[in-house]
Write a structure and sequence with these properties.
Length: about 500
């Protein structure tokens, strides 16, 4: 029976160990939500790393058995592989270059060797479960070699690949020593997807300048195959966030927020700790607001959540320390006996708390230096069932191409962000409503389920197109007829062409 095989670096579950037993909890991430309807159906499978190093064979068998009940297949990685493949090449080579922060990139041969070997390990698991007619859907920058590896072993399989982070311009991408191998791996897919048109264009440009391939519009001709490259902006589960505002726990937390902040205007900022998120620039903009507009002192609060991430890595630890210092300096300088300008939290929060904040905050400040999509902006919009509130959004986030009714800013322009905050604080309610209605319509229509359906439908269309482009062998009966007609004709014209009609 035909099935869909989803492959990503991580499985859509959180695994924890206690007293020798493993507990599995579903992840609440956007990708897990969107693909949940696919991998749970029939005999479909999701392949990925379970999130923990498990070396004992008996323990591996035990976890595998538990996961198979949920249509999941684990790929077990050693600590060295995690360090060099994930922390190393994925996050210290690809991540900074793809986010235009190449100064942080490290080009280590050990990183690349581990990246190649782990992609092979994923390939071997796919080969174990893949059967004729199956569809393989590979996700994100950790597995860019996998489509090509699968194509080499199973050339007839339908394979789609989607990149969730930006794809850099050619001038940055060419800095990577293994750039050709990465492109060759990605071109193993039948359909290559990105979140924005700019990313799609950058990929096509890089492929045409680095590899001996032909590109026409959005099609790359590679190894006698047509690889289609298109844009698929990711959505969220709109109904989930829209309905959470009525959840009793969310309502209770909103009441606590009202009691704590009373007449204060709340500016919400939620990010993972990363140098691509523009957190320091956001703090500088808020400090400038309090300097230039002292009338807001005691009336406006920046509620900043930074989710811990890789804070043992030097660049991330340094960033965390800078954030701590900056927050402390602003609070020390501007606070009063009854008011703190910044409420700063360095930890993650449950979804109910985030929903309460989305529903309560007057402004959502999302200003990454570079982001593939950024779902926080869409989650805030989906939560505003009263059609009020203002979204300030970086033009460097993929979501800015859709949410054009947000206040769009350049994240490097501190003054512009400050002016945007002032505009948001003074925006009349009718203007807020007009903008928010437009954005909610877009987020509702192009939700996560629409995104999944769109990609899978397009993959089927690409496979049909590839089949139609294959040369057909003429059967014996037709060949005899063609020869007879050829010999019986008095005049003959022979048309020769490079590739089109033939």
């Amino acid at each position: 029976m035909r099935k869909t095989i989803i492959v990503s670096n991580r499985l859509p579950v959180k695994i924890s160990e206690a007293d020798g037993d493993y507990t599995l909890q579903p992840s609440e991430g956007g990708l897990a939500t969107g693909l949940g309807s696919i991998y749970r159906e029939g005999n479909n499978i999701w392949i990925g790393w379970p999130g923990q190093e498990i070396t004992d064979q008996k323990e591996q068998d035990k976890v595998t058995k538990q996961l198979r009940k949920m249509n999941l297949m684990p790929v077990f990685l050693t600590q060295d592989e995690i360090n060099n493949f994930y922390e190393g090449f994925s996050n210290e080579t690809l991540w900074p270059v793809f986010h235009y922060m190449s100064v942080y990139a490290r080009y280590e041969q050990d990183y690349w060797d581990a990246y190649y070997q782990v992609n092979r390990k994923f390939r071997d698991i796919v080969l174990k479960v893949a059967e004729p007619g199956d569809i393989i859907w590979i996700h994100d920058y950790q597995l860019l070699l996998l489509p090509g590896m699968i194509r080499a072993e199973m050339p007839e399989r339908s394979c789609g690949c989607l990149q969730h982070i930006p794809f850099p311009s050619y001038e940055l991408f060419r800095l990577i020593p293994w750039r050709a191998e990465i492109l060759e791996g990605m071109l193993g897919a039948d359909l290559m997807g990105f979140h924005t048109f700019d990313d799609t264009r950058h990929f096509l440009n890089a492929a045409s300048r680095i590899l001996p391939v032909n590109t026409s519009a959005n099609i790359v001709s590679y190894n006698d195959r047509a690889v289609v490259v298109e844009t698929f902006p990711m959505g969220i589960d709109f109904n989930k966030y829209a309905e959470m505002g009525n959840d009793p726990e969310v309502l209770q937390q909103m009441q606590h927020l009202k009691e704590n902040f009373q007449q204060d205007r709340l500016i919400l900022s939620i990010d993972r700790l990363d140098y691509s998120k523009g957190i320091l620039q956001r703090l500088q903009s808020f400090e400038l607001l309090l300097q230039l507009h002292p009338e807001y002192i005691g009336k406006v609060v920046l509620y900043m959540i930074v989710v811990p991430s890789r804070d043992t890595v030097p660049q991330y630890k340094e960033l965390r320390d800078e954030i701590d210092k900056y927050v402390g300096n602003i609070n020390a300088r501007f606070r009063t006996l009854a008011w703190h300008p910044i409420q700063y939290f360095y930890r993650s929060f449950p979804l109910e708390t985030l929903s309460a904040l989305y529903n309560f905050a007057d402004i959502c400040l999302v200003t990454p230096m570079r982001d593939g999509m950024n779902l926080v902006s869409k989650e805030y919009v989906a939560s505003r069932h009263n059609n009020d509130g203002v979204l300030i959004l970086s033009e460097m986030a993929g979501a800015s191409k859709e949410l054009i009714d947000a206040i769009i800013v350049n994240p490097n322009n501190i003054g512009a962000i400050t002016r945007a905050i002032v505009d948001a604080l003074n925006m009349p309610l009718p203007e807020q409503t007009r903008r928010m209605k437009q954005m909610r319509t877009i987020v509702a229509k192009f939700n996560i389920h629409h995104w999944v359906k769109l990609f899978m439908t397009r993959l089927h269309e690409v496979n049909d197109m590839q089949q139609n482009m294959l040369a057909r062998l003429v059967n014996q009966e037709t060949a005899v007829l063609i020869r007879q007609q050829y010999h019986n004709t008095k005049k003959r014209i022979t048309f020769l062409d490079y590739d089109g009609p033939l």
